[in-house]
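Q: A reviewer asked whether we had any structural model of the full assembly, not just the individual parts. We don't, so I'm hoping you can provide one. Inputs are below.
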Amino acid sequence: MFRGINKAKWPFLATFVLLVVAGAFLGWARQPRELRTDPPIAADLDHLRLMPNGISGAPPESYFAEGKLYESDAYNLSQGQRLYDWFGCPSCHRDGRGNVGPSFLDGWWLYGPEMVSIVASIRDGRPHGMPAFRDRMTIEEIWQLAGYVQTIGAYSAKVGATGRKDDRQTRPAENRAPARILFDEGPVGVHPDQGPSP
Amino acid sequence: MIVRDEVEDLRDTALDEVQLDRRLSETWSTPTGLWGALSTVDHKIIGRRYIYTAFIFLALGGILALAMRLQLSEPEARFIGPDRYNQIFTMHGTNMMFLFAVPVMEAMAVYLVPLMVGTRNIAFPRLNAFSYWMYLAGGLLLWIAFAVDTGPDVGWFAYVPLSGPQYAAGKRADIWAQMITFTEVSALAVAVEIVVTVLKQRAPGMSLDRIPLFVWSMLVTSFLIILAMPAIMIASTALILDRLVGTHFFNPAEGGDVLLWQHLFWFFGHPEVYIIFLPAVGMVSTIVATFTRRPVFGYLAMVMALVTTGVLAFGLWVHHMFVAGLPRLGESFFTASSMAIAIPAGLQIFCWLATMWAGRPVFKTPFLFVIGFMVIFVIGGMTGVMVASVPFDTQVHDTYFVVAHFHYVLVGGAVFPLLGAIYYWFPKITGRMMSETLGRWTFGLIFTGFNLTFFPMHILGLQGMPRRIYTYQPEMPWSGLNMFISLSAVILAAGFLLFFIDAIRSAASGPAAPDNPWGASTLEWATSSPPLPYNFARLPVVGSLEPLSNNSETLSVAGGLSVDRRELIVTSVVEALPEARESSPGNSIWPLWSALATTVLLIWSIFTPWAVVWGSIPVSIALIGWFWPKGTPEDDT
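A: Here is a predicted structure for the entire assembly that you could use as a starting point for your response.
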């Protein structure tokens, strides 16, 4: 039946099949997009172990098993972008440049740039006015939002970083790495403009 | 100055048939081996590749359709999740429209038009090679992205804001938009080749009123492509810019406009339907003429209907947007123009009916597909007139009624004629006949399966089932019909499977075909099956619309062409009077390098705008290599 396919065509067919098979393998190996996380995994996201001073620490084991989903996955980052607006973050932090609350763009993280610190800040709140969101958002939403907040201050844009919103443009979108553009290197050390000290 | 040791500028008039064949084969044939295969510019080899590739995409798209039917066969089914389902219906539509329907029609033209107008190669043969590589790269981009779970999930027309930067996360929508760029580059290239081939390379004597209807249809289609495709390229590029560098083409808050997308898309999207349908008109006309043993009734009316359809095609795109909230006057205008398209379409149908009425029909497989086409297309056309009316469209918009309508029009209007055309031209392309028995079974299964699958969708739509849903609740009155549709889809799939089996089996071991098995009257049957690399040993001279039927024994030919280099005749646009001997470019690997460089640039530019800057360097190098004078005989005109 296949004798009709002459010799010159085999390389084409082989390449075609090889590419599609390789793609299918990659797709199988890669985590597919989850619109609803498994409940036990979602519950485990709450088990982060912070250092005694509330800065930095260890994320839950499942977070690594999932491939650090909330920092890099485009879908979760875009959910974070929407949560940022829905839960009123701009009322203190504006578009990320800070107002009453500290800026995310100035290269200065009061509690460090790690995901656990940001998650803890959102979940448990911080002194000087940061409210706790643990009773208003699910822990999964908090991780999504934390991933997005971390992206705002990233100096090099992640592949999955969110684009502009259908809204007034006030600063370049996260995929343009605004932190690199807007970060004011300024005098070294504690900077009075960069929010209250912890 | 190149000095040749043999006779300077040997002409075909000085040679007998055997010597002529040897000389022409030396000049025109494609070297064997991988390098030869990669660098060939023979329109027959490239056309064949195009056809194979398009049918592979048809099969893949069909598998996706079956997957969707599996998921929808019962309420609350859990075979496919919502995210994967979104990707699947988007892939099905995108694949069928951009990777199957348009390319396969162009593929048939790439193969057949140069033969039908009696020339030796398509115009701009290297561009032709380039266009195939671009098409292949675009198809691979889409399918590999789907395989790695990054397939587009925004529907085949990718409306903003859903496909915009805020709602379509990741690179999925970018893959869709960039795949468009690939296929449009390739489609535009082929369209330009066809236009030039038809207008300037026709056999001497083939004046405009002696062009076969298939060639006319491809000429009109090519102009449609040239006028329609830039709109979608602008739209998809604007979408990528919005998503990657944060422009505001589609952002209302900054003065952009989401409706702009719909207008740009459908300004392309509606002519697209005719880009798919008009070649089918040409195929049907050719098949009807051959199997009724007489010329098509009303040649002039047919050509006028083709041109009218082509012009009207650009005046009715807004009927896709009736529920978008447009001014009443606009809606009325586009209702009227949408209904007006039924006039040329009806004219064509009546011309074919008159041809069959007056002729002596022979019911072979290609002709069966034509009859199937007429039945299904007329039903699709009638629901088309229904949805052209705004009040009715408002009720059935985005329901399965529309799904049923466009499958009747597209499958009935294009796939049936295409399958007929494959059965019809298969002997010419492969030199072997397809099985008549299996062909009848194929037709029966596909015709039955198609109607049983898609007719109930009209009813489902009227019952309110929306399109693009991945599941539905058991309380809805849809489950019985959905199960029926899914089972019927198996019959349809069996028909296509039989077609593929027949095609592969016949290509390998079918009975050998004579030069003109159907007794047809167009020029492609004047050469051997399959045609030799140079198509015609001596280029034909045409004195009537049906060059092979008037005096079947002899065909007048033109002489005086050089055999040392690839040469063909350039004729005048209207009268096809010979104007010049023109060289035709030889094999070259540079189209492949150029396509690869362009592919790198286009895919890279999904990730960073700097790709356009750095990626243009290899593209420039490849193009310089392509156009660098190489001192071949073809260069010294």
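A: Points you may want to mention in the reply: The longest helix of chain A spans residues 10-29. DSSP finds nine helices and two strands in chain A.
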